[in-house]
């Protein structure tokens, strides 16, 4: 199911970030706490010692005391500076450890998400936003973490400055707070603008898609041959230009806010310094006091401005953290009913009044579709493009749920079984062949080296017709496919990859079989023999075969012709030919192409 928005307060987001950091690296929190204390302490050394040194110079001028004060200031200040830099460095490394753990969780969430989400733009946007919340240093997880510690340091420093300046009078404090508060308003507005613009934008997703496709060798051939490369580059450029414009508009808002801030600061500090000069001229403060108060006023204003910005930043970080938590919160699959144990085979499957439309598509692919696949039956599903064949398989494999009606396995609604136990039943081979850049054996078994049964892998590859191919490979079944992870990796043809997928289905040895046209890359005669021999290998298990080539599936017990989401005709190959309906017409048309073939079974029906 699609994730709902995660509503939480800033406090809850702070707790989430701190507790996550604490779980994955206590050191990250400890180091940043010490750095915060040291950073807050540093300015006071540079405030107090210059005052004492100046007063000594203008007063008793004791050389030993003078040298001692300078040495102490130097030692304290440089020790704190060194410690801060060192701890900040290792603290950041620890924080990255936490972020990487979160990125792992993000990737796991992508892989575990319901299949239907992978085709849903809303989910894809959420995924992008959550990733941005983790990868950005400014915003999101790291943004909140840094801002929180900066805010704590600011509060500690402010209380120190407050103690110093309040000796001049509370009105100065109030004046400083009032003027700095003006900046808050403008910085908050700029930050909100940035968040809204980035949130509404699908540009990052678009940019990522173009960049992924341009880097994916699988698209290389078509893009070159159809001269689509220039178009792609221009699309990429257009989207990066739009992103730049968006960034420019955001920067403009920040610039406006910064200009106003400078004007306010000029007015504020000008008036306070004039007042301090007045006090000095009238001998109400010493030179040392003058230096200390000007330093304290500048420090107070700057830290207060930083603290207010931190508060504004922290509030907007809450939104990023909400998105991150929405995406990362454990997916609770809707395990309907009582998670019944899977009954023992043989298996009969029934579609009962199934209606279904893809989310946000506004139309139904199936409306009250009903049919049975009896146990042991081989059912061929044929039909034109878009008839609904693959959608039917997606529903059957529980990649989607029917909007109404039910699909049953031996009379029980398939939604009542646990998802993983139900998936264990299926050996599937789909149209899209996705070879992994691992070894042949790992591709076939989908198990790691050392876990798979090498003998069984060999047998399955042999049965899928890849025995001779494997014997030519330097490392046999341990040869890598593709060169992403191994320079000695090999590239296989489309047909060979498809045969490997059949070997994978055989290796899994599921009780229910689906072949959704995985053989488009092999020639028609090879497809027929492949289907037929695959069929012999799977024994008497219930199986569904989809193909556009009607000659390939005519050995099946039954053939179901789908048209616009409905079952148009059903029967054996022979019965359907005798009926002389749509199936017979389609078969005749296709058979023309095999006229004169050595295989007489392909000859058109007289
Ligand atoms: N992810 C999706 N989102 C929205 N509509 C979809 C999606 N996938 C398929 N459809 C639509 O559902 C209908 C049935 O598609 P389906 O892929 O099941 O047909 P098919 O019979 O398998 O076609 P083909 O023979 O071309 O593979 C089509 O109209 C298609 O446009």
From TrEMBL:
Organism of this sequence: Paenibacillus helianthi
Bilayer-crossing regions: 31-54, 66-87, 143-161, 168-186
InterPro entries per UniProt: AAA+_ATPase, ABC1_TM_dom, ABC1_TM_sf, ABC_transporter-like_ATP-bd, P-loop_NTPase, Type_1_exporter
Record key words, sorted: ATP-binding, Membrane, Nucleotide-binding, Transmembrane, Transmembrane helix
Compartment(s) where it occurs, according to its Swiss-Prot or TrEMBL record: Cell membrane
Keyword ATP-binding: yes
Primary location: membrane
Domain ABC transmembrane type-1: 34-316
Membrane topology: Multi-pass membrane protein
UniProt KW Lyase keyword: no
Protein name: ABC transporter ATP-binding protein
Lineage top rank: taxon: Bacteria
Residues in ABC transporter domain copies: 349-589
């Amino acid at each position: 199911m699609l994730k709902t928005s995660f509503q939480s307060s800033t406090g809850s987001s702070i707790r989430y970030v701190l507790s996550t950091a604490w779980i994955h690296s206590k050191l990250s929190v400890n180091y940043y706490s010490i750095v915060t204390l040291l950073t807050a302490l540093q300015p006071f050394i540079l405030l107090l010692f210059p005052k004492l040194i100046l007063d000594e110079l203008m007063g008793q001028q004791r050389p030993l005391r003078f040298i001692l004060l300078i040495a102490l200031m130097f030692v304290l200040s440089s020790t704190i500076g060194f410690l801060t830099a060192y701890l900040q460095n290792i603290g950041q490394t620890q924080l990255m450890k936490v972020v990487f753990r979160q990125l792992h969780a993000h990737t796991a969430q992508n892989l575990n998400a319901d299949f239907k989400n992978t085709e849903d733009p809303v989910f894809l946007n959420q995924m992008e936003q959550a990733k941005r919340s983790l990868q950005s240093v400014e915003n999101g997880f790291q943004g909140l973490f840094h801002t929180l510690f900066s805010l704590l340091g600011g509060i500690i420093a402010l209380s120190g400055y407050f103690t110093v300046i309040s000796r001049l009078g509370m009105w100065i404090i109030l004046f400083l707070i009032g003027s700095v508060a003006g900046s808050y308003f403008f910085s908050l507005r700029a930050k909100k603008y940035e968040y809204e613009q980035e949130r509404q934008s699908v540009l990052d997703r678009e940019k990522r898609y173009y960049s992924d496709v341009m880097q994916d060798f699988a698209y290389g051939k078509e893009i070159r041959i159809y001269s689509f490369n220039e178009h792609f580059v221009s699309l990429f450029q257009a989207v990066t230009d739009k992103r730049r414009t968006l960034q420019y508009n955001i920067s403009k808002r920040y610039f406006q806010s910064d200009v106003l801030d400078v004007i306010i600061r000029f007015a504020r500090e000008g008036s306070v310094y004039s007042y301090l000069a007045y006090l000095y001229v009238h001998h109400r403060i010493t030179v040392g006091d003058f230096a200390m108060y000007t330093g304290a006023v500048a420090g107070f204003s700057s830290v207060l401005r930083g603290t207010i910005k931190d508060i504004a930043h922290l509030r907007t970080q809450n939104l990023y953290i909400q998105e991150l938590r929405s995406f990362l919160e454990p997916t609770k699959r809707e395990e309907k009913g009582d998670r019944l144990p899977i009954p023992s085979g043989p298996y009969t499957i029934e579609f009962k009044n199934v209606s279904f439309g893809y989310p946000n598509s506004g139309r139904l692919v199936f409306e009250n579709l009903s049919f049975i696949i009896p146990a042991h039956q081989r059912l061929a599903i044929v039909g034109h493009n878009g008839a609904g064949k693959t959608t039917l398989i997606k529903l059957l494999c529980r990649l989607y749920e029917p909007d109404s009606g039910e699909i049953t396995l031996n009379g029980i609604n398939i939604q009542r079984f646990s998802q993983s136990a139900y998936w264990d039943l299926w050996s599937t081979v789909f149209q899209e062949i996705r070879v992994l850049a691992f070894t042949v054996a790992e591709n076939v078994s989908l198990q790691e080296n050392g876990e798979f049964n090498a003998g069984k892998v060999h047998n399955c590859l042999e049965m899928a017709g890849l025995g001779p191919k494997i014997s030519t490979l330097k490392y046999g079944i341990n040869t890598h496919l593709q060169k992403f992870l191994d320079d000695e990796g090999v590239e296989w043809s489309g047909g060979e990859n498809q045969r490997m997928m059949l070997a994978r289905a055989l290796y899994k040895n599921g009780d229910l079989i689906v072949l959704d046209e995985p053989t488009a890359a092999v020639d028609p005669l090879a497809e027929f023999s492949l289907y037929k021999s695959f069929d012999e290998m799977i024994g008497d298990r219930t199986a569904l075969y989809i193909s556009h080539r009607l000659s390939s599936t005519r050995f099946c017990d039954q053939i179901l012709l789908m048209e616009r989401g409905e079952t148009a005709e059903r029967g054996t190959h022979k019965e359907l030919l005798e009926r002389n309906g749509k199936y017979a017409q389609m078969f005749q048309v296709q058979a023309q192409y095999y006229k004169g073939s050595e295989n007489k079974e392909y000859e058109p029906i007289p």
